[in-house]
Amino acid sequence: MLKPYDLLENILLDIENGLKNNINTSVLSQKYGFSEGHLRRLFSFAFNQSISAYIRSRTLAASLNDILKTDANILNVAAEYGFEYEQSYIRTFKREFGITPGCLRKTGQVIPIKPPLHLFDDRRLDNGILFGPDFVMVPQFHVIGKRHHLSFMDMRTEPLLAKQFMENERMLIKKTVNPNVFIGLSCNINIKEGQFDYVPSVQTADLKNIPPGLSGETFETSMCARFRYIGQHGYSGITGNIVSMMSNAVGDFARDERAKYVLVSDKSNFVMIDDNLYDGTYCQIEWYTPVFEK
Hints:
The protein has 9 helices and 11 strands.
């Protein structure tokens, strides 16, 4: 089984090479031994867009060479790029570019296109790959979990504490919002002392009926930088080394003077893992950390 970086790199290359050969999710899923649903979820998680929409945009962008550099009949161009009917090509072309192929030939209008996606070697992490950040607004939510007071040096123990929570305390919490979604909340962060509280938890509608030995926490509404990690292992395979590498990558962003946003290092942040997204091959993790605009 290919590592995540190699898998996604190959998929992007297959798409570019198959634009005239009706490349689609069915062909790709069969080649790599995934269901089409899994391939769509993986691509969307990695690149924040639909693989079908990406293939369509890249196919239409490639067809521009034939439209603008040759006098080929539009029907033939449509067939060349996998469209069964000329009118379906024209309608799709107009939705993408806001103009028909014929009008584009006549007017020479400048139109934007979707460039091919690329991966970057500096985001390759062990048996995984890190994406982001993108920026999202996270509404307030509540969690109930097991509080642990840690030093920054103890960060590598987080996967073990998360596993213990899911195996032991998780079942004590009733009426969860998303029972299959684990949240690892870091709060009460003291940069000067190098300490913080780590709360492996699940989301709840409120902070009522907190079981003995557990605590309730609230993440306040925040603009966040969201990083996404794909790893070639199960969630039990998330090691302290992976957590450390992810933390270092987030730190690299924090030190980037060109970035538009600044990380709020002493405010609560959290990791989110949706158990429904794991199919036995690649795990997916999201890390949200508050930011403010420079």
